[in-house]
């Protein structure tokens, strides 16, 4: 299939051609025909698979085929983060470049006055984060009574971040007669009730539910906590890439890891919620153009990162859910490119590894970095009960194969096996 097979306005077809888009992605092929009919849509697909165009093209098509004499806000796209709002806005503007349709972003962390002016001057499409949009609604600077399209982008993440109460308040301000599209990389059970209350007989389109993209090779790297930063820099020495995204669990750790990389001679930026919007824009812009090859980020701040050249994702801290794991590693392997994702796991991550594996339905591949001196901290690693019942009290507990370093003997066996495999390969 090509985009020319969609019954889209000639202005949109010209923009699609100018953008260099030729073959629709699977989610676009499945979702666009449904959305063009006016039906509500529930779309599930991995990050980096073209979800934005899947909802942007139908809503632009409708507005072009049903023009209004005045500039009234007709479409609302809600996103969980500012970075994602900017990403969606850029995509919409790219597709609407040949049309007179306007779009504006509304999110916190920046002055409200320019947003108020844009809303007052008239904009057909608003791309917003829920909190700031409610602020504008309370001030009377936005009119949502003419909304014909509501898009909830990355709804699963908005659920995780506690945005559903705000979203419900916003929906209460919208006309009941509208087309609603909900998109996400996963569809947790907690969304079922919300969907039943918000969407009308939606068509469901699911692509690769709860699984990493096939273009991503991912593995866990067991390591004692004391050696995490050393292993990180050792891994970076092995990577020949100009675009590596590193995730941490907290803002403070992101700062510490970025500082460590800078001291080690790496040009690294940092992205988290404590940074000003200007700092976040600058870090992301520098990362996108390659001025800084390494970006250290937290989950929330990295939500809108759409850089097709990212070759590696490194989870310095393991994410706490399978959904978050998929979202994180989905930052690489985008646009049909191949990518790699490494997750550093410690003794305390044992149960989280199991949770992710159960959700994915498969074991996470486990690797050790050849040449790295793991033994320098083995003596300090606490022993967990192994499959033979050894270790501390608590009875027999299976030790995950990927966490073999948890006991000195098992760790030595793993190193010996690695060495034997290397010798066999050389022979």
Identify the notable features of this structure and list them briefly.
about 425 residues, alpha/beta, Rossmann fold, 2 domains, 7-stranded parallel sheet, 6-stranded parallel sheet, 13 strands
Structure write-up:
Helices cover 39% and strands 14% of the residues. The protein is built from 15 helices and 13 strands. The chain has helices at residues 10-18, 26-36, 51-65, 82-95, 112-121, 130-139, 155-160, 164-171, 191-198, 228-238, 251-263, 277-289, 322-329, 350-360, 408-426; strands at residues 41-44, 75-78, 103-106, 125-128, 149-152, 179-184, 203-206, 216-222, 244-247, 268-271, 294-297, 312-315, 339-345. Helix 12 (277-289) links the parallel strand 10 and strand 11. Helix 2 packs parallel to helix 3, helix 3 crosses helix 4 (82-95) and helix 6 crosses helix 8 (164-171). It is globular. The relative contact order is 0.11. Mean pLDDT is 82; it is low at 377-408.
Give the helix/strand layout.
Layout: H1 10-18, H2 26-36, E1 41-44, H3 51-65, E2 75-78, H4 82-95, E3 103-106, H5 112-121, E4 125-128, H6 130-139, E5 149-152, H7 155-160, H8 164-171, E6 179-184, H9 191-198, E7 203-206, E8 216-222, H10 228-238, E9 244-247, H11 251-263, E10 268-271, H12 277-289, E11 294-297, E12 312-315, H13 322-329, E13 339-345, H14 350-360, H15 408-426
Parallel strand pairs: 1-6, 1-7, 2-4, 2-5, 3-4, 5-6, 8-13, 9-11, 9-12, 10-11, 12-13
Helix pairs in contact: 2-3, 3-4, 6-8
